[in-house]
């Protein structure tokens, strides 16, 4: 009998495992990488939302915090306009808006509305005092901005400045001086609280009547940016119409010949979300269309663009083709605002960008932040003139009818005498109610651009609309 010696069995399973691909480990690594990327994406998106919603936040390329009321409100509006570009899914991309209509109105009826922004509140870079304002430039001066605090109109500590502006009526009796409520106050949600009930609106209206009577204002402008916009109660736009109706009724009852106007958004997405245009039209004397800030540096769209193009460029399509003055005005008309009540906004400031590559300096050029000139991307007209005097090259875009300028890595979109002339002629030809200037405080009131010529942009608009013969 042969003894059988047991032979140890080889551990082939181990060898087999080594030779097989480690698919479980690979899947785990893939999941971990996806999670990390997801967290980074969500974090960046969250930061973007915080930046858009926060009036005090800088862009991602800076570390400082916006702590300057002079630019906080304008910066907030520009960011909300940029935000509207991302919220355009419901916009009609097939809108077709024509160019000039060839008929003229009685230009003496068209008004020139000039915003004057108080230095301690929102004078935005300039220190224009009321005594330096030419009272013959504007038919209406709107002084901003009063707050809406505890459901009442709050003038803060600027009473003396309001009185100085109203005193200009002694030099030009036909001048109308109004007060604007909103502006930087909207950082504190004054309107949203005030309109919630009839009682709170009544309290606000009573305070308006008291202020206008005490100081001698000719009316009030409501600058709410913006009712029922993203994240807000959709009922706000209904309540806003109720406020306008109640204001008009109380003005009539008080036998006060007061003017009621509203500063309104230009982008289609905001118009659709924030306003019941046809109903508003019943109660306002006019609306001031904020037709500017169409393009502004934001981290998710880091390319150069025009602040206030009159017309679209042929290369623009879809929603981008709606980001211009002509489209916005025609869209407001199509929603039910009468032509004679639509006052077209013209900016006296520009927007600056920092170019990635100074050799790539045209439209849609890559940018990585605000330019060095101005504050937070906002550049007054006198600063633009200094930029040009320093050797910057100016390019006038024949399609959009506005210029831009560049030098080294600095790039600025702005309006000049030529572009505001085109806009004023377009306003005149299309029979709109007039022009609104934002603002005389940042026009060249100190003769920087041309010797012995103050307020060149505003003066050009006034001459074109009110003193030019047919």
TrEMBL record:
PROSITE patterns assigned: GH18_1, GH18_2
Keywords: Glycosidase, Hydrolase, Membrane, Transmembrane, Transmembrane helix
Membrane spanning residue stretches: 27-47
InterPro entries in the cross-refs: Chitinase_II/V-like_cat (IPR011583), Chitinase_insertion_sf (IPR029070), GH (IPR017853), Glyco_hydro18_cat (IPR001223), Glyco_hydro_18_chit_AS (IPR001579), Glycosyl_Hydrlase_18 (IPR050314)
Domain GH18: 110-468
Gene3D superfamilies assigned: 3.10.50.10, Glycosidases
UniProt KW Hydrolase keyword: yes
UniProt entry tagged with the keyword Transmembrane: yes
Family recorded in the similarity comment: Belongs to the glycosyl hydrolase 18 family.
PANTHER family tied to this protein: CHITINASE (PTHR11177), CHITINASE 11 (PTHR11177:SF390)
Name of the protein this chain belongs to: GH18 domain-containing protein
